Every structure is written in C-alpha cells, then in structure tokens.
Amino acid sequence: MKRDTSPTTAFQPAAPRGIVEGLVYVFERVMPDPFMLSICLTFFVAVLALLIAPTGNLPTLLDSWYTGTFGILAFALQMILILATGYAIAEAPIVQRGLRALAASAQTPARAALLVFPVVAIAAWLNWGLGLIVGALLSREIARRVHVDFAWLVAGSYSAWSICNSGLSSSIALSQASHGNALNLVEKATGHVVPLSDTIFAPFVFIPTVLVVVVMTAIFIRMHPKSENVVAFCDTGDDASDASSADPHARPSDAPASFASRLEQSMLGTLLLLALGVGYLAMEWRENKFALDINTTILIFLLIGLALQRTPIAYANAIRRAARQTGSMLLQYPVYGGIMGIMKGTGLASMIAKAFVTIASPLSLPLWSYLSSLIITLLVPSAGGHWAVQGPFVLPAALSLHASVPRTAMGVAMAENVSNMLQPFWAVPIVAIAGIRIQRVMGYTAVTFAVSLVIYAAALWFVG
C-alpha cells in the first residue's frame, strides 16, 4: 500500500529498527523547516559573535548583518539563474524522453541506485543546477515504475549530487581560474590564476569524487528499507508537464493566431539570442583562451536551454516553472548572507580558520583547511560566499607556509560537498521538485556525510 509523501501530508514515522531508520526518525522529529533552521543559525551565530568574536559588539554585529544580507543579492541571483537554466534544460522534451527511457530500465531498488548515482553525478559534475533538476525528475520517473522507498531514492540523488563542488561549476575552482574575478584571491595575492587542471582535474580531487559515487552506490543499495517499511511515491500528477498545461501565461490551443502568438512560436528570437551568445563566447575564447566562470556557465546553459526548448515562449514557460522551485532559495539566501556578514564582520570566521591554521604545517594545511571548512559550511552553505569568508585566511597561510595553494583551496570546496549532506539549504530545490518532506531525506544523507568525510580527508592527505 502506498502512503502519501507529499509535503502537505502529515507523516508519522515508524519506530526505528536500525541505524539508518534511527537517523530518519531523529531527523523527522528534531529538524525544523529549512527557513526556520536558517533563523536559528542566525541567532546562534549572533550570540557566539557577541560572546567571543574579536569585534563582537552590537553595533558591528547589526551593521555586518545588514551588509551581508543585501551584499549577497547579486551572487544569489547568479546561483538562482544556474538552477533555473539547468531546470529549463532538464525539462526540454528531448531530455524528458531520455529520462523516461532511463527510468524504464530500473526495475528494482538496486537497479534504481545503479542508474541514479552515475547519471546524477555526471549531471552535477557538469553543472550543479542541472544535477539537482535531473536528480529530482529522474527520481520521480523511477518511483512511478518501481516499488521503491521515495525518500531513499531522493536521498540517493542528493548524495550523488554532492560531488558538484568538485566539478565544472565549482564556484571556488572557477573563480580561481578566472582572470579578474572578484573572488580570485590567488590572483590578487600572486598575480597568477589557478587552472582547472590543478583543481578539479587533479588526482587528489578527481579520484575521491569518483570513489564517493561508487562507494555510496553500494551503501545505498544495502540501505534500502525492507519491503514492509517502504514509503512509496504518491503520484499527484503535479509535475512539470502538468504544470505547463496550467501555466496562466500559456495561450489556448484554439485561440486565433495573432502576430504576437506567431512571434512567440517563431524560432527567430531563439536564433537571435543564440547568435549573440555563441558569437560572444567565440570572440572571448579566441582572445583570452578557453575559460569558464560563473557568468559564462550561466550563458552556456541559457544557450543550451534555448536550443532544446526551440521557441522563446517554451523557454519562458520553463523558466516560470523553475521559479516555483527557487522561491525558498530567494528567501534563505539573504538570511545566510546575514550570517556570513556577521561571521566576517565580527571576526568570528577568522577565529575558526586561524585556530586550525596556527597548528598547520605545509603538508597538513589543506587538511586543516578542509576541517575548518566543514564547520563554516554548516553556517554559510554557499561555496562562493564561503570562500569569501574563509579564503582570505587560509590562502595567506598557504603562501607563508609554502603549502599547496590548489590543494588548500579545494580542501574548502571538498568540505562543501561533505557538509551539504547535513546542511539542508541545497536540498530544498530537489525535495520541492520531487515532492517530499526534507526531514526524511536528510536522515539518509547523514550516512553520506560520514562516508564522504573520510574519503575526501584521506585523498587530501594521501593522494598526490
């Protein structure tokens, strides 16, 4: 018998019978809504700053909170655009047909895991926004066909997505590879950029990234609940395809053709934007060699989405549906920006980072950078914003100790991968699209946190 897993349905968790079931039970009973959690974290950081931060007085705290809240808006819009443009690609008809064809091959929970992990991981490595959307939509398609625990499946998708900060859309890696980027702290200190070959393509990053996907696939297969405890997906029909038919901006199919409707359905607008975008990228890469940063990543996904959606109105409708999933991010980004402002303005972040740096050696600094990042990420769940807080302290330490700058910087990024499995900020879009309560998902991803914590730490220490 299927039980409804929609967010509006009150779900009474069964008594725990094992470690994983116990984690799910605890998260459902203890963890509040992500927005409420961000408010609680703001209060916690504010009190901590007033008690121990170097400049933890009330005027500084209030000013830092205000500055951080509104100073993050430009970056927040960039991140939301990455998610929205990734959504538009994933919702394109040809991609949807591909997802349905893939889902048809998953006939058991084990096969579902063997399918979800590599597909979502590859999508997330290419673009974190695309990975979130593909994970949510693929999970729904599989759950329609297979008797599988839906929370377990969505948690597997989110776990596979966790490697995104080691991929092509890694904010930290991209910013350090981008000449003139405001967050390129390496270039500001040394006059040189760090190419992607030294970060995301380096063995100490690429090997643990693959290993996390392989190991967690095997673990998730064993973690699937017994048949009698499965909480299956309840199909309410409220997916992307149904949303499109209910779009208030869509014109009735029997409406008389007008100049406006013909213009909307024409590919001329799409071709114009494609010509402008492709022309700019060709010119830029010819003059400055191939490079990716946040803005060019958004542009590339915009162009791909336009090409796949074909007409301007189809793309506009896809973005409107994407906006339904980004509302929670619009709400939480300013709150976390305020937390970031407090930590940076009062010196609290520097205390955390310096506490690790003071005991570091050239060999151990990347690992200490990684460990301190685990803590900061729980309070500032954005790789770019996090780097703005922690980078100014770990980078000078790396230069003064003659430690590896790429390894130190990527230690921060890899810790983002790990801590995101306990910090629900980035899980909000995927659970919103999938249609499930976030608390049940986080109970499973706590296991991913523990396993990936060890794998990435070992890679930083042992892999050359």
Automatic annotation (TrEMBL):
Transmembrane segment boundaries: 35-53, 65-90, 110-138, 200-221, 266-283, 289-309, 330-353, 359-380, 443-463
Residues in coiled coil: none
Keywords from the UniProt entry: Membrane, Transmembrane, Transmembrane helix
Superkingdom field: Bacteria
Entry keyword Transmembrane: yes
InterPro entries attached to this UniProt entry: SCFA_transpt_AtoE
Entry keyword Transmembrane helix: yes
PANTHER family hit by this protein: SHORT-CHAIN FATTY ACID TRANSPORTER-RELATED
The protein, known as: TIGR00366 family protein
Organism: Paraburkholderia azotifigens
